[in-house]
Amino acid sequence: xxxxxxxxxxxxxxxxxxxxxxxxxxxxxxxxxxxxxxxxxxxxxxxxxxxxxxxxxxxxxxxxxxxxxxxxxxxxxxxxxxxxxxxxxxxxxxxxxxxxxxxxxxxxxxxxxxxxxxxxxxxxxxxxxxxxxxxxxxxxxxxxxxxxxxxxxxxxxxxxxxxxxxxxxxxxxxxxxxxxxxxxxxxxxxxxxxxxxxxxxxxxxxxxxxxxxxxxxxxxxxxxxxxxxxxxxxxxxxxxxxxxxxxxxxxxxxxxxxxxxxxxxxxxxxxxxxxxxxxxxxxxxxxxxxxxxxxxxxxxxxxxxxxxxxxxxxxxxxxxxxxxxxxxxxxxxxxxxxxxxxxxxxxxxxxxxxxxxxxxxxxxxxxxxxxxxxxxxxxxxxxxxxxxxxxxxxxxxxxxxxxxxxxxxxxxxxxxxxxxxxxxxxxxxxxxxxxxxxxxxxxxxxxxxxxxxxxxxxxxxxxxxxxxxxxxxxxxxxxxxxxxxxxxxxxxxxxxxxxxxxxxxxxxxxxxxxxxxxxxxxxxxxxxxxxxxxxxxxxxxxxxxxxxxxxxxxxxxxxxxxxxxxxxxxxxxxxxxxxxxxxxxxxxxxxxxxxxxxxxxxxxxxxxxxxxxxxxxxxxxxxxxxxxxxxxxxxxxxxxxxxxxxxxxxxxxxxxxxxxxxxxxxxxxxxxxxxxxxxxxxxxxxxxxxxxxxxxxxxxxxxxxxxxxxxxxxxxxxxxxxxxxxxxxxxxxxxxxxxxxxxxxx
Length: 746
What we know:
The chain has 28 helices and 27 strands. The protein is of the alpha/beta class. Helix 4 runs parallel beside helix 21, helix 10 (239-252) packs antiparallel against helix 13 and helix 21 (496-506) crosses helix 22 (517-526).
């Protein structure tokens, strides 16, 4: 372990947080066992002021990792359902029984009978991502589902269609840009999604300090909009109309002509003329009727964006959207329009615009060499849904379980996720009891585990070594950091690497397949114990498993080495991402050109036009969400260190509340197409008329996580329609926002 010298009684261990994309540097203060043979105690967790990027910044969630580690409500032993109750069993029994049942299902019904769901924390664990995916691959099943089809599938689909890989995610160059157009994001509360930037509030403030503009487009005057830049209120679900009108203005208004670089665009992309023609009829006046934003305001935004663009000789401009747009009805169109706007104005792959980072190793190049990252041939049983970033839409999972088909899903492994709570509509509560086998791998029991046959205890982030591999291509400031485990796992908790390695072996597929991580699993079981003992004496000895694989990847990337990261436990800065390093060089399409006119996205403009009357209808209330700094999606509510708010509350504009006879701080019923929820309401002018705000992730009902269950709050997904008929048709993204709702006093 990488330890700073302190007193004889305690040691200070550098590590980093793995809750969100920022990966803030941390220092854990660890006390020795109180009795011989006991466990060390994590006394406190502090921000690491010597971290080269976060520089002492950290939110409250990361500081609570010690309490998370020691929480007595944590899963510490494997559990099996016997006569309706989950009872402790040994790892040997759990592996043998699960492996035998999976093998029997594969033999009887084929590999497609097995499916896996990866929750959000999976992608913040290098070992979890690699080995859980490899386990399913070894079984021969394509049925991988993941949480990103709840909140970010749109971006992954569009990047694959335009750039050839879901890994190509342009990152706004906030350190130099002169105009930042931010849609559906609240960085002061939740940092930034699909982008790694520490202290987003401070970084955005620096844009304004140097004379630039930050424009926050959101139905609510968010915490970000109150502190930084300008707020442009917009009706829920209408961002695509605004972006189409901005792009229309940029390509047709003589005042914007200097901000266009069509010659460059034609050198690096195809479909330029088709993309320009596609927005010909989307005027600011047309958008104003739907969005509620004045046409002159739309023109002003377009002209200011063009004037700041690289093509016009400005400092650069960057348009960006996050979950508040992704989760709406037209998230894919928004992502496409943003990329087209950024490229035509010379801002994509340019200083002050947007860059496509490499990280410690070029994941784009690696994926291309391995034949990964693009679309593949796999489809759901009905042929309707394709895989995005290697996974099917989780909104289609219930239909694949209940389908009258010989290859329907009969066994599901859920790792670090809670789809029963997170997926709208409630179809999974009907589907999961029809499974022959449900296995949950997690750190707490949750609503999904209530249906599980087996629940397996995983390690938390202080109990495992790690490297932020999934987020290397997303860093505004490229850097790398390795952490050894801070403390030994408590109870019988195991790393995902070992869990899925053992399950693969028990299922009869130990090292079958082509993925190198299977070999790592074999090494872990054979020489791993010896090397771990050696490593404790000689830290330079690599541990078998993810560490050995990472060492090879870093050598291939030639930007840092594992040895260097061990010498610099606070992390190291990597060479900055240079402009001109993506277009014409690393685009992963077959011809190396960006596709500005993917057919499925052009076709979706017809759906956008058809939606206009509904979204323009007056007097309608539409639902949006929001986040809280102290929680993260559906988890962190069980952490005893973090004082949570009094559940979730609905927010409404005073005029909407008054017209419905709703007083301040009373309980209301929010009714949607799938059902209703009751919760307190706050009346505020921060919310635009016609908007109801209800945070997601609350309303826990799981036995075994009593603290989360005891909190006030409701699960808004009970009011949101689910199933395949409510997926965004381009990407399979669950449509979670902009649904019409009715709100009345309860």
